[in-house]
Amino acid sequence: MTSNVNSIYIPSEGPKDAKIMFVGEAGGEDEEYLKRPFVGKAGQFLERYIGRVGYQREEVFLTNLSKHRPKGNKFFNLLGTSELRDGLAELSEEIEEVKPNVIVACGAWPMYYLTGCTNAKGTAGSGVFSWRGSVVQGSGVHVPAAANHKVLITLHPAFIIRPTGFGYHPVFFNDLRQLKREVASPDLDYPKYTEYIDPPSTEELVREMCQSEWLTVDIETFGNSLACVGITDSTERGLCITFEHPEGWQWAQWALLQYVKKNFQYGAFDINYVKWFYGWDTVNYAFDTYIAAANLMAEFPRGLGFLNSMYTPFPYYKEDRKKHKRTGDLSSLWKYNLRDCVVQHWIAMDQ
Fold this sequence. Notes:
- The protein is of the alpha/beta class.
- The chain folds into 2 domains: 20-182, Uracil-DNA Glycosylase, subunit E, CATH 3.40.470.10; 194-350, Nucleotidyltransferase, domain 5, CATH 3.30.420.10.
- The protein contains 15 helices and 11 strands.
- It has helices spanning 29-34, 41-52, 82-98, 108-115, 128-131, 157-160, 169-177, 179-182, 202-209, 249-257, 267-278, 289-296, 304-311, 323-327, 331-350, and strands at 20-24, 61-64, 102-106, 135-137, 150-154, 194-197, 214-222, 225-234, 237-242, 261-264, 285-288.
- One of its GO terms (molecular function) is deaminated base DNA N-glycosylase activity.
- This is Uracil-DNA glycosylase-like domain-containing protein.
């Protein structure tokens, strides 16, 4: 037994045919005393929220990365130990046996071991605030059976009940509400939309989109140069006009001049950018998802990454903005721009 890990074994709990599996880090003092997972204050909080989204504790499977409590409840004390290795192996066996339709990773370390997701720097056990609310494909690197399952990432309930995390109650609830959609099938199924990147039909598409009630607009830039303009009138398609085909700029400029109501995410940047560097005017700037978020959820972030996690079924994708710098493939930037447009439109229609 490792010196930084307690010897008491805390088993998992729940039906062997559960459709939902919750995975935490390790048990605490109450769990150790009762030899049951999620029975302390954090577990009681989780149980209440499981009930709020329509389920009972007895319906779900509850387990942890490690079946042993680390000293001081510090997960770092488990890193590199046999207790963690054994716990991960046991977790894989539990996933194989239960075969849940969705696994809920509660916290940064369960997220890392079940999906491989991290912050932008690739630091293990970090980045959960970016990824929470996302449903992603599991990774089999650390927990082999997870590779065949989808994983919903959320914050650890132990964080939510602390003063520093108390304000995240509605965010945690919003994450768990996704279970109603995800529990129906083990398949990972994101919404689909058609991508138009510098198509020959640019003029036709722009004219058609400008007949709609709303037009969502988003730009990407290279410093003082415009990289692309993305527009959409629905969550089912998007048009990206890039600098590689500047003959399309006239139709981007034309769209901004039409009286169709326009939606931006922090439009003060986009509108002033195209005016300052290109002399383009924008007519009927009618809605802004950033400004709406400041009014609807004033205490929370207003960036598109956070709003995406609250309003849409798409996973976190904002790091894709930098992908072209690593690969040299600009098509990733055009696809990123289209995702921004579709997500932004989705959010605006819900706000």
